Amino acid sequence: MTQATSHAFQFADARLALDVCGVGDANLALIEERLSLDIANRSDEIVLHGETESVELGFAVLESLYDRARRGLIVEPADVEAAIRMGRHHVEQNGADKDLFQGQPAANTVAITTRKKSISPRSPGQADYLVAMRDHELTFGVGPAGTGKTYLAAAMAISHLLEGKVRRLILSRPAVEAGERLGFLPGDMKEKVDPYLRPLYDALYDMLPRDQVEKRIEAGSIEIAPLAFMRGRTLSEAFVILDEAQNTTAAQMKMFLTRLGEGSRMVVNGDLSQVDLPRGVKSGLRDALDTLRGVEGVAVKRFNADDVVRHPLVGRIIKAYDAAPKPEAEAYKTNADQE
Question: Does pTM top 0.85 for this prediction?
């Protein structure tokens, strides 16, 4: 029978109690639900009661949230979920101990600060991804939607730009599936391209004031363009992001990767389960992963459903699709399954 125990978390600064507990103790209620604990809020301390491992994990979660509040950051339900996810990962890897976050690539050690917010990884996979982007000239982020690949890459790029590590930020993605048949769309070039680049704009607006983004775009320090516009260029002193890379051909991917210039970094993101290329055409992302395996200076981070940081149901949906038997008819086979 599992032993039950109680442990009290005391606030060194009682003024931060509301930030940690949430309005109406919403954050505590979430911890109770996720860890099967009984939690009592006694103003200057929080008492946790339950199975020993859950109490230890709950205490570590509160420490993480308190540290976030102490640094002046907002503590939202998503931050609670992130702290729980990081703690559980540590327990799985190392077993429970007094300090669940000791020596881990936890959120605080790889946080990114932009003009509008401080951005921390919300899963162990995201933490590894940030470290990979920080330490490598070329990083591939591969995995399902909702894992933060584009958002974190944009945050890292903005951070490099604001700190003067690069002079330009260049964001690109294939337009109109993989064919980039822009001439068939109505409007001028900007009107043709913008709908396909909207996720990149959204990420930027979430990290910088809108007027600053527009000014930087006008000045050329931020460039958002379709992949076709990269041909023939050398991208020096730039942080370059290619999104939706699964919809590139092998030739397009080679063209893009060879644009890398002095003082630049590249991040290439994609989801190999969402390839829109014609049947029989190998994804440029898959080809690059095969070709560049083991090449020095290249990092590959593969995400899975456990790294999904959108609504919890999204992760369960992805797991269900991954576990579902594949249709027998060859006509339904996806490019992600083709080698």
Answer: no
Residues carrying CATH 3.30.1370.10, the chain: 4-104
The rounded distance, in Å, linking the Cα atoms of 316 and 72 is 33
Q: Which two tokens stand for residue 183?
A: 């001439």
239-265 burial, b at 16+ Cβ within 10 Å, e below that, comes to bbbbbbbbbbbbebbebbbebbeeebb
Question: Under CATH, what is the fold of the domain 112-325?
Answer: Rossmann fold (3.40.50)
Q: What digits encode the pLDDT tens for the residues 102-154?
A: 444 344 456 676 666 677 888 888 989 999 999 999 999 999 988 889 989 99
Class of domain 4-104: alpha beta
CA pair distance 162, 206, nearest whole angstrom: 15
Domain with CATH 3.40.50.300 in the chain: 112-325
Which residues does 292 contact at the CB level (< 8 Å), separation at least 6?
Answer: 138, 298
Q: 198 CB contacts (<8 Å, ≥6 apart)?
A: none
